[in-house]
Amino acid sequence: NAPLLAFCAVIESLLSGNVNWLRPSSSDAGFTARLLQALVACDASGQLNGYVAVLPTRTEQIGQLCKHANGVAAWGGETALQAIR
Length: 85
Known about the structure:
By secondary structure, this protein is mostly helical. The chain has helices at 5-15, 31-41, 62-66, 78-84, and strands spanning 20-22, 52-54. It has one domain (5-84). The protein has 4 helices and 2 strands, in the order αβαβαα. The chain is globular, with a radius of gyration of 13 Å.
């Protein structure tokens, strides 16, 4: 995975008006969360805050999250992708 992939995916989804729950990769080390936090901090209106959430959940919890989603964009390891399926 490219380091900016998750951040760019959230930006693209925001442009479409979607609410975004990001479960970062274990190798991300908080990078995407920090970028998204900086983005939200730049929004004087405060609207982005309701459209972006970083959820550092375990792979076993992915199924529970997916039950509340209308759609899922996914990339990563086979274990995480299998949990989404």
